[in-house]
Amino acid sequence: MPARFLTLADVTEVLNISMPQAYALVRSGELPAIQIGGRGVWRVEAARLEEYIARLYDETRERTLRPDAEHEG
After folding, report:
1. Contacts of 42 (CB under 8 A, 6+ apart)
2. Among residues 11, 40, 37, 5, which one has the least CA distance to residue 24?
3. What is the pLDDT of residues 20-62, one digit of tens each?
4. pLDDT at position 65, please?
5. 3-state SS of the chain?
6. Domain 5-67 CATH class label
């Protein structure tokens, strides 16, 4: 069975981002995560990461399909 929760290190690998970028996504609430244990280590549910990626695809598609107001004329 695949792991339900990923570490932030896992997230950095999947998204090809730095650890500070991963922390920023979590702290801003853009990527939902939970803190576990006495040390408060962050964990991201695999399903939430997939939803985040899908949301980025949707946002990118909307931006590329929407006419740019600067170029209308």
Report:
1. 7, 8, 23, 26, 33, 34, 35, 36
2. 11
3. 999 999 999 999 999 999 899 999 999 999 999 999 999 999 9
4. 86
5. CCCCEEEHHHHHHHHCCCHHHHHHHHHHCCCCCEEECCCCEEEEEHHHHHHHHHHHHHHHHHHHHCCCHHHCC
6. mainly alpha
Query: Given this model, what pLDDT does residue 72 score?
Result: 53
Please give the pLDDT value at position 71: 56
Domain coordinates in residue numbering, the chain = 5-67
Locate 61 and state its tokens: 């598609």
